[in-house]
């Protein structure tokens, strides 16, 4: 995983997350040059790559780029997390 261009980093684990037990990472990234094999799943454009034990899924939603990555053992979960990403719509309310 690259640390350059990471705007926000989120870690996921089966317990309280530490640097040692983080199973899946989500990075909100500034760069828009995804690497990997382009796939369309459920109408969403994904870029999927794996290197050794590392598995990554890159997706763009509403102009923002996200990269999920973790151990290849968790690839099904990583893929479903990426596919489950939804844009939050805010409603303008008149005061």
Largest sheet: 6 strands, antiparallel
- Compressed to H and E, one letter per element, the order equals EEEEEEH
Average pLDDT level:
89
The total of beta strands comes to: 6
Q: For the CA atoms, what is the radius of gyration?
A: 14 Å
Share in helix: under 10%
- Structural class, by secondary structure, is mainly beta
Q: What share of the residues does DSSP label as strand, in percent?
A: 35-45%
Shape: globular
Q: Order of strands in the sheet with the most strands? A: 1-2-6-5-4-3
What can you see in these coordinates?
By secondary structure, this protein is mostly beta strands. It is 9% helix and 44% strand. It has one helix spanning 75-83; strands at residues 6-12, 24-29, 37-41, 44-51, 54-61, 64-71. Strands 1-2-6-5-4-3 form a six-stranded antiparallel β-sheet, covered by helices on one side. Strand 4 and strand 5 (54-61) form a beta hairpin. The protein is globular and about 50 Å long. The mean pLDDT is 89.
Write the layout of secondary structure elements.
Blueprint: E1 6-12, E2 24-29, E3 37-41, E4 44-51, E5 54-61, E6 64-71, H1 75-83
Antiparallel strand pairs: 1-2, 2-6, 3-4, 4-5, 5-6
């Amino acid at each position: 995983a690259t640390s350059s261009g990471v705007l926000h980093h989120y870690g996921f684990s089966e317990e309280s997350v530490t640097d040692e037990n983080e199973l899946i990472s989500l990075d909100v990234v500034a760069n828009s040059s995804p690497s990997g094999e382009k796939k369309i799943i459920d109408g969403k454009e994904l870029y999927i790559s794996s290197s050794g034990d590392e598995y990554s899924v890159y997706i763009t939603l509403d102009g923002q780029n996200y990269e999920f990555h973790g151990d290849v053992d968790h690839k099904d979960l990583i893929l479903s997390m990426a596919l489950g990403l939804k844009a939050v719509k805010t409603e303008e309310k008149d005061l």
